[in-house]
Specification:
This protein is 27% helix and 27% strand. By secondary structure, it is of the alpha+beta class. Strands 6, 7, 8, 10, 14, 15, 17 and 18 form an 8-stranded mixed β-sheet that branches. A 6-stranded mixed β-sheet has the order 1-2-3-4-12-11, covered by helices on one side. The chain is globular.
């Protein structure tokens, strides 16, 4: 489909979804965003749903302003994927051992490493900016500096919620590795600190929603947030890279005879800010549950833990600010999913996938998400599908 345009106070709301299928609270959030004095454009992806701070699946382009609650507390959250030389024929019939090995190598939930992971131990890991990255931690907000040790120990860890680590197979039988995670606790604490600062600023007192409090250009608060935001985004990218290196190590050891090789990593943020130029203006583009989809750019659009995912390339549609969806998108909240589904439902909907099937992950059941095929179909003018992946192992926090 092409987009549907809805009226907004300052800018129209371009939706790559049927407005009739979007819950009213999400539509109201979008209307609220469209009232911001600094807004230059608002695009809405087909995985749109109500979110904390701002609507998930929205792309908010502002001039001289950025909203920290719209970025959210998982700064830099995103996806990474790697195609391997293994095929489905290399995989054992029982994948439980492989899942256990992954869970042993990559801490999940609130877990962390016993000592910081040294990236220099991984073959081919780009360590050039590592020392500079950690050196710049000295420049982040004083309020979170006491978390440095924890941030170091959580580097290369998965977290909980909808984060996952998977082994997948594509239509040709090739094996892929895929994972979803962000900036862990340090990103959350940086975000919460700056959201609190923004909400107290005088220019934010008359907004329709206090979650839409912004920092504006040429102020010390904006400079401090951008510094910490970009550091947090870098942390998230390093976090995924370390996890992928740990995952490759597991695969090398478990499939030693096959001597697996790995193609270059595809990586994309989907909760982040980037400076981009549109119609002669430099804009701060916030993607809240959306990926960049410039012409030819690789991206990853995951489904749920039982339905599969898509590797895509962007078509460079400027009407969406060169963006696409970040996943299938939830159609019910975590709590609603827990009330609606049982562990028996989870077992049924994840049949054939080696994964947790207990009450702790019922809220992540495929039935709580929109159909991924429909979401992909609604953005045919935003991305082109390169490969469809089906998970055979899924590790959740």
């Amino acid at each position: 489909m092409s987009y549907v345009e809805m009226p907004g106070a300052k800018v129209p709301i371009r939706m790559w979804a049927d407005p009739a299928t979007v819950e009213e609270v999400a539509l109201q959030q979008l209307r609220n965003v469209a009232t911001l004095p600094w807004i230059e454009g608002l695009a809405v992806m087909p995985d749109v749903h109500y979110g904390k701070g701002a609507t998930v699946g929205s792309v908010i382009a502002m001039r001289g302003a950025v909203c920290p609650a719209a970025v959210g507390v998982d700064i830099g959250c995103g996806m990474s994927a790697v195609k391997t030389s293994l095929t489905v024929n290399d995989l054992p019939g029982d994948l439980s051992r492989l899942r256990s090995k992954i869970e042993a190598a990559i801490p999940v939930g609130r877990g962390m490493h016993g000592s910081p992971v040294e990236p220099g131990r991984f073959h081919g890991f780009a360590t050039g900016g590592w020392d500079d990255f950690w050196g710049r931690f000295e420049g982040v907000a004083e309020a979170v500096k006491f978390r440095r040790e924890r941030a170091a120990l959580q580097m290369g860890t998965l977290g909980a919620g909808n984060h996952f680590c998977e082994v997948c197979v594509d239509a040709s039988g090739s094996v892929w590795l895929m994972l979803h995670s962000g900036s862990r606790n340090i990103g959350k604490e940086l975000a919460e600190h700056h959201i609190g600062v923004a909400q107290k600023l005088p220019h934010n007192q008359g907004l329709v929603d206090r979650d839409l409090a912004v920092f504006v250009a040429d102020t010390p608060q904006m400079a401090a947030y951008r510094n910490d935001l970009f550091w947090g985004q870098e942390y998230a990218k390093y976090n995924r890279s370390i996890m992928m290196a740990l995952l490759k190590d597991v695969i090398r050891k478990e499939f030693k005879k096959a001597n697996p090789a790995f193609e270059p990593e595809i990586s994309c943020h989907h909760n982040y800010v980037n400076v981009e130029r549109y119609e002669g203006m430099d804009l701060l583009v916030t993607r809240k549950g959306a990926i960049s989809a410039r012409t030819g750019e690789y991206g990853i659009i995951p489904g749920s833990m039982g339905t599969g995912s898509y590797i895509v390339t962007g078509l460079g549609n400027e009407k969406s600010f060169n963006s696409a969806s970040h996943g299938a998108g939830r159609r019910m909240s975590w709590n609603a999913a827990k009330r609606r589904f049982s562990t028996k439902d989870l077992e049924e909907q994840t049949r054939g996938v080696e994964c947790r099937k207990d009450s702790g992950v019922v809220d992540e059941i495929p039935g709580a998400y929109k159909p991924i095929e429909q979401v992909i179909d609604q953005q045919r003018d935003l991305v082109q599908v390169v490969a469809k992946l089906k998970q055979v192992v899924c590790v959740k926090g």
